[in-house]
Every structure is written in C-alpha cells, then in structure tokens.
Amino acid sequence: MTILFVLLAILLLGILITVHELGHYLSARALKIAVKEFSVGFGPKLLQRKSEKTETLYTLRSIPLGGYCAFYDEDTETLPEDDPRRYNAAAAWKRMIVVVAGATMNILLAFVLAIVLHLAYSAMPVQPYITDVQPGTPAYTAGMQPGDRITAVQGEDITVGDISALSAAIETLDEGEAVTLTLSRDGDTVTVAVIPQYSETEGRPLIGVGLRAGERLTVGQSIQGAWDSCLYASTLILKSLGQLFFHGEGAQDITGPVGVVQVIAEQTRSGGLYMYLNLAILISINLGMINLLPIPGLDGSRFLFLLAEAIRRKPVNRRVEGTIHMIGFILLFGLLILFTFRDIARIVGG
User: Is the distance from CB of 308 to CB of 292 less than 8 angstroms?
Assistant: First the structure.
C-alpha cells in the first residue's frame, strides 16, 4: 500500500461517516430540533463558527475519520425541562425520523453513487453494430454504414453482445469467398456480401469496420440498474448478518477500521476509480444497515426505545435507557479495539 491509497481510504471512511451525521443534522433542522454542534472530524478544533440564528456550533476538527451531530441534553448537559432546545422535548415521532435519517442518508448516497457508476461505466449488451466504415475497404464497397446492426452472419442469427461471430466466420472463409451479413438499418433489413481483404498490418483478413456490442445506458436504465445493484448488495449483507448472528459464520472475516482501510487501499490501487466507487457503495450500504440493527449503542436500538415511548405515550426511564446505550457502546468499542489489533497482527504477520 502506498500512502496515497491509504489516505484515499481514510478519506472515504470519513466522508461516509460525515454523510451519516449529516442525515441526523438535516432532519433535525427540518423538524425544528435544535442542534448544539455539527462537527466534521474528531479531536482538536481547527476551525469553528457559531450560527447566531440557530446557535449551532459548526466545527472542523483535526482527525478526518467522520464527525458527529450533538444535540442539547442528549449526553451530559442539563437544561431546564421547559427549555425548547432540549432534544427530548421534541415529539417522539420527530426523534424517530432523526434517528433513522443517518442510515437513510448512507443508503441514499450509495444509490446516487450507483447511478453515477452505471452512467459512467456500464453498457447494455446489444446486437453488434457498426461504429465506423473505413473508406476503400470491402465493407465500404458493399455499402455498409455506421449504425448498421448485424443480426445474422452467413444466415445464422447472432446473439446479443456476440461481437466475435463476424471474426469467427471470416476465419473459416477461403480466399476470395464472401461473408454474407444481415443488417438492420433504420428498421429495414439489408443483406450484403463482403469479400474480406488480407491486411499485412493485422496479419489477417478484414472487411474494414469497427464493431461494438454494447451501448451506454440511458438515465432511466442507470437508475434501474443502480436500484437492482443496491437491492442485491443489501440482500447479501442481510444474509451475511443472519449467518453471523445465528450460525457464527464469517466471524473470522470481520475487520476493524485498519482492515477496512487496507482493503480499500489495495482494491483502489488495482481497480482505480471504478473499484473505489464500488467500495464506497458497498460500505455505505453496510454502514447504514448495521446502524439500524437493534443493538444497544446503535441507531436501531434508539429507535426501539422511541417506538416504545410513542406507544406508551411516556418515555422509558432515561437513566435505564442511557445505561443500556452506554453498555452497548462500551462493548462495541471493545470489539472495535479487538478487531483493530487483529487487523494489525494480520498485516504484520502476513
């Protein structure tokens, strides 16, 4: 791993966590819930600005591994019961929206990135079509035109995406023998007979055309493809989580931040921007879905307490809830440290 790819990996994790916290922040602002601080990064402050209108403190901190959205009276600060800034003063349904908004933002980001990926890199298989016809070549003489789609070679229909059928047919011809092509041109069917000409440069007979077997997806096709990709990834993640929790399968493959950074750096170095965006999609969906699990310390657990509050029309004992979340957070942090040491040992030993 080079330092550049490690930095790119750290940047990616930081962006995904910040986007998660941005979901909490934007939903809170939309629902008129006061936000005490919105931070990009952790650790010592580098820059800060306080909004006179909302009293929100915006900070940029030195460790670029995410950020946080802090609400009034959510942690240790005590405010009067009638203070409108209090997070717990907001209706339970509003807080439920705020809690799930972080994971929702991660999943939405994955969907948007998947659309971009499909638009930039994906192609839909089609019947091979002519991209260009070189002047003075057998194809030019036979009247072939750019845009013609090849539907049959030597009378045999060819499948979608089969770009090799023409080359395979030409290789079997005797010298001076013609290859018969059935073309689709502006809705009409055209049949041409082309005698390949031997190319000294290529060392084989050619007819003088450029071929493609795929075309760029439209925006609508890209959206559908992105939806299918994200749905497939989500299904795999849920299946893996189920196997992990109920059967213990895959526990040895779990990695901490160090392992994730290593994977991102190595895959990006070999696969470039395409792989970087693919990993961003997968990790963002993973982050969103895991946060919705009903595990103490995660958003899913907070949502369950809020749901109970909405049903009972009164909150669960705040101290009990806080203790449960704190225990969950400590256990999760302990697992994080364990996985981190295991990652380091694996890297050093491997």
Answer: no
Matching residue, tokens 């931040």: 257
Residue 317 is classified by DSSP as: P
Backbone angles phi and psi of 34, in degrees to 5: -65, 140
Helices 92-121 & 219-247 angle (0-180, nearest 10): 120
Residue type, 151: T
Q: Which two tokens stand for residue 130?
A: 């002519």
Contacts of 140 (CB under 8 A, 6+ apart): 133, 134, 208
In this prediction, residue 350 carries a pLDDT of 57
116 band by pLDDT with thresholds 50, 70 and 90:
very high
Q: Under a CB-based contact definition with an 8 Å cutoff, are residues 17 and 109 in contact?
A: no
Cα angle value 33/14/272 (rounded, 5°): 140
Cα–Cα distances in angstroms (integers) from residue 60 to residues 88, 101, 109, 283, in the given order: 26, 22, 22, 24
Please answer whether residues 6 and 263 qualify as being in contact, where contact means their C-beta atoms are separated by less than 8 angstroms. no
Assign 3-class secondary structure to 86-132. Answer: CHHHCCHHHHHHHHHHHHHHHHHHHHHHHHHHHHHHCEEEEEEEEEE
pLDDT in tens, 255-279: 777 778 888 888 888 888 889 999 9
- How confident is residue 145, by pLDDT bands cut at 50, 70 and 90? very high
Give the H/E segment covering residue 37: strand 35-50
Token readout for 169 is 């047919």
Report the 10 Å Cβ neighbour count for 107.
18
CA dist 21 and 38 (Å) reads: 8
- What is the rounded CA–CA span in Å between residue 119 and residue 273? 14
- The predicted-structure confidence for 78-99, as pLDDT tens digits, reads as follows 567 667 778 888 999 999 999 9
Nearest residue to 208 (alpha-carbon basis) of 142, 116, 153? 142
Would strands 179-185 and 188-194 be described as parallel, antiparallel, or unpaired?
antiparallel
264 Cα distance to chain centroid: 13
